[in-house]
């Protein structure tokens, strides 16, 4: 673009001059969450309504300018920041943050894309409802970003991913048209499910501007247990037992390797991490109950008793109150921070069938240990969904920066080859963004990639919607 | 096609001569379930494996021949039978009926498209698991058809539509390639969700050949209640109460208008239909429990007591045993047959937000009563999902055939205008097929239709996959 000014004037006419940012420190929009890439935006544009979004998209289409939609900018895979060219517009949705309507009888809430997840959780809770999506970034991530990346988190075992919580979308297409699909219907078989196509498409097909989401009645009681188990096999056995006895009452099931827990003990000594010792893994287990706390406690104690007798649990504690429950969950949530304190490390967000988790970990651990003696495996994640954060820390005392620089590629190769062998996913909940698009091209089936490319070409023929994400050029 | 013989020879070489049917009575494949249209197939082809399906699709593509995939041929909207031209191949999947694998720890089962739903239900139950999809045609419909049409049924309030029960697909694309997406993963954010695009696409984008589906542990106890309620408002209130007290324990919630029940009493007098009288509606309510029958009974009795006090229930019975429960469900399931006995009628399968059901019915009833004095409204359906079978029976003693012939169009116009006013769906669970494609063109948003057409063109550029379904020529 020779002279940007007329284009910027057009944008200013749509959203107002104060909402077209081109000067000063724009790193809040240009730098990704993990501080891996610092891009350069042509402008950061902050529309306040769906019609403004549509007009911005039309203006960009007319000028041949690419758009990068952005919510809370908390993604893990550099998918919502501009590239370094200075030619892309960042479309920030954070001013569109209203809860439009809540329909108690339909158990739905309609909310704009820029609404922060925690605000939505709190608004629902105030009315006696649960919006179950829950993840580490909930204080700053937005619903639009959660939908665009199909965010996961800790309640998936019961409530599914963001995808499963969405009944309808409002979307601005690549042509700048508004599709109003905010129906709130639980059944609608009138053609292709466009909703699920936009969910998880990472802004490459259009801009999600609002959504109608499911709410649930608040549980009467929630209890948390922390148990040590002798092996991952035992953890899978415990999961099966819990599902059999608790059904939908099982709302959380996380696993943590002993080395991951030892890092929490080391870097956060004020935390009281139970079961220090040789036990291979620990589990955090959450029960939600619609009857009473006494009923929940009875179910949980029965479960743990049976598991102790079966030998799939070695020891267990049940939180006596909410602050104890929070403390137990806090151990699990502190693992990424403890890892960061320990030093740079190589991260993976993989999934396989739950039944394959033990074999996957045993084999992959062995391959890495053989190829990189001393490498320390930090294993934890959402076992109930088959989703592990399988991370590798440099050998003790070694140069973590050099380890990351030199060994990330070969270690990735081992891990992703194993994922492929077990028909797993190289990105269970974080998405592809720009960071993993090369790996997607390597590991996704060519037939699936061909279908994806055909859809992209059909819905975004000029390739202006987040063009750097998902696909290699 | 001047000379069909070389093409038929190619097909015979792929699937074997006995599986290419061209002679004799082919009405099992050519006539739709509701006997509305009798088409004429070029051939009925019955492949036995995914690779045979792929080769048949390739042969058809090479010859420019259209394909109509077919499962149990139990669809309601003439979506799986050939047109009258004699130029379309019916691709019957019923020989591909194996259950390939069951993974207890992953709670998944991988099954071929032609497997009959009831066979899958029974195979799961034998291993201690529930496959919850349940609908009237379950004895003959197939999983492939359930997926292609995103079938609904009576358990959606808890377990969702077929879509929500599917973790992975195997699909033969329009180009005859095989996409193996049978991962069984609960989390996989690696690009567009192709699975959800094929589910519900009614064979217009490719052929579903197998699927990996969710199973659930079998409930320990299931209880059924039958309650009379003073109004639809009261039914919606009862639903809210039930969801609040039972959460996921509520696995069925059906509503039936008193006139619908009177037809069951009239045509099936051996059935003991409770609560004859002036009460406007009755409800069938099902509770599934993971603890015990005593626990379930306690929950259900508490719920009904509170509802009686609130006035949203007038009277209720709870089944004492399984045969009583079956009898209560049987009343609900007998309504379509009782309607048929009463005479031809005008059917709708609509959904609106649950909160809008009372207004929708009151207003639409009034409009029809005014325009067609004496017309009798048969209202029943899956209230928990906002899905009503809103049917209209001719005035008593009048000529039902003439009524259907002359009044279907204007009555449809009233009903679908109301659906549009309430942002509902003109086809909640039956799909579009060829029967409703004109209505789809009238009532679906032009933006959504444009996106659908772009996707169809991208994935089936030669328009050979079930070309008569969904879209008008």
From TrEMBL, chains A, B:
<dbReference type="InterPro" id="IPR006094">
    <property type="entry name" value="Oxid_FAD_bind_N"/>
</dbReference>
<keyword id="KW-0274">FAD</keyword>
<dbReference type="InterPro" id="IPR051264">
    <property type="entry name" value="FAD-oxidored/transferase_4"/>
</dbReference>
<dbReference type="Pfam" id="PF01565">
    <property type="entry name" value="FAD_binding_4"/>
</dbReference>
<dbReference type="GO" id="GO:0071949">
    <property type="term" value="F:FAD binding"/>
</dbReference>
<dbReference type="GO" id="GO:0022904">
    <property type="term" value="P:respiratory electron transport chain"/>
</dbReference>
<dbReference type="InterPro" id="IPR016167">
    <property type="entry name" value="FAD-bd_PCMH_sub1"/>
</dbReference>
<dbReference type="InterPro" id="IPR004113">
    <property type="entry name" value="FAD-bd_oxidored_4_C"/>
</dbReference>
<keyword id="KW-0285">Flavoprotein</keyword>
<feature type="domain" description="FAD-binding PCMH-type">
    <location>
        <begin position="37"/>
        <end position="218"/>
    </location>
</feature>
<dbReference type="InterPro" id="IPR016171">
    <property type="entry name" value="Vanillyl_alc_oxidase_C-sub2"/>
</dbReference>
<dbReference type="InterPro" id="IPR036318">
    <property type="entry name" value="FAD-bd_PCMH-like_sf"/>
</dbReference>
<comment type="similarity">
    <text>Belongs to the FAD-binding oxidoreductase/transferase type 4 family.</text>
</comment>
<dbReference type="InterPro" id="IPR016166">
    <property type="entry name" value="FAD-bd_PCMH"/>
</dbReference>
<dbReference type="GO" id="GO:0003824">
    <property type="term" value="F:catalytic activity"/>
</dbReference>
<dbReference type="InterPro" id="IPR016169">
    <property type="entry name" value="FAD-bd_PCMH_sub2"/>
</dbReference>
<dbReference type="Pfam" id="PF02913">
    <property type="entry name" value="FAD-oxidase_C"/>
</dbReference>
<protein>
    <submittedName>
        <fullName>Hydroxyacid dehydrogenase</fullName>
    </submittedName>
</protein>
<dbReference type="InterPro" id="IPR016164">
    <property type="entry name" value="FAD-linked_Oxase-like_C"/>
</dbReference>
């Amino acid at each position: 673009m020779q002279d940007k000014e007329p284009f910027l004037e057009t944008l200013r006419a749509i959203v107002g001059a104060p909402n077209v940012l081109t000067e000063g420190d724009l790193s809040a929009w240009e730098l990704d969450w993990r501080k891996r890439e610092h891009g350069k935006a042509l402008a950061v544009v902050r529309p306040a309504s769906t019609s403004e979004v549509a007009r911005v998209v039309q203006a960009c289409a007319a000028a041949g300018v690419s758009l990068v939609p952005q919510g809370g900018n908390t993604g893990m895979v550099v998918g919502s920041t501009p590239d370094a060219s200075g030619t892309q517009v960042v479309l920030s949705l954070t001013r569109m943050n209203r809860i439009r309507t809540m329909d108690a009888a339909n158990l739905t809430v309609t909310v704009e894309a820029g609404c922060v997840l925690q605000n939505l959780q709190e608004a629902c809770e105030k009315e006696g409802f649960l919006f179950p999506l829950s993840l580490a970034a909930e204080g700053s991530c937005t619903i639009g970003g959660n939908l665009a990346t199909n965010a996961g988190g800790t309640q998936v075992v019961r409530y599914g991913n963001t995808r499963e919580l969405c009944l309808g979308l409002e979307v601005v297409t690549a042509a700048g048209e508004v599709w109003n699909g905010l129906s709130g219907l639980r059944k609608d078989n009138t053609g292709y499910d466009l909703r699920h196509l936009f969910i998880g498409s990472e802004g490459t097909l259009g801009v999600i501007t609002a959504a109608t989401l499911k709410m649930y009645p608040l549980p009467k009681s929630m209890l948390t247990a922390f148990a040590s188990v002798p092996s991952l096999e035992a953890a899978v056995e415990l999961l099966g037992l819990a599902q059999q006895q608790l059904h939908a009452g099982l709302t959380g099931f996380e696993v943590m390797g002993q080395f991951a827990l030892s890092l929490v003990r080391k870097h956060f000594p004020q935390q009281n991490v139970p079961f220090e010792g040789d036990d291979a893994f620990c589990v955090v287990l959450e029960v939600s109950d619609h009857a009473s706390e006494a009923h929940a406690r009875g179910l949980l104690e029965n479960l743990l008793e049976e598991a102790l007798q079966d030998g799939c649990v070695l020891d267990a504690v049940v939180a006596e109150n909410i602050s104890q429950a929070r403390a137990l969950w806090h151990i699990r949530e502190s693992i990424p921070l403890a890892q960061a304190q320990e030093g740079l490390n190589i991260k993976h967000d993989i999934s396989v069938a739950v039944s394959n988790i033990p074999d996957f970990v045993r084999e992959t651990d062995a391959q890495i240990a053989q190829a990189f003696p001393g490498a320390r495996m930090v294993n934890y994640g959402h076992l109930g969904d088959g989703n592990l954060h399988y991370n590798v820390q440099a050998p003790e005392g070694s140069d973590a920066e050099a380890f990351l620089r030199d060994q990330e590629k070969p270690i990735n190769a081992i891990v992703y080859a194993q994922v492929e062998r077990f028909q797993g996913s190289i990105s269970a909940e974080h998405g592809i963004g720009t960071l993993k698009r090369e790996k997607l091209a390597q590991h996704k089936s060519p037939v699936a990639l061909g279908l994806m490319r055909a859809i992209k070409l059909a819905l975004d023929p000029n390739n202006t919607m987040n063009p750097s994400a998902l696909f290699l050029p």
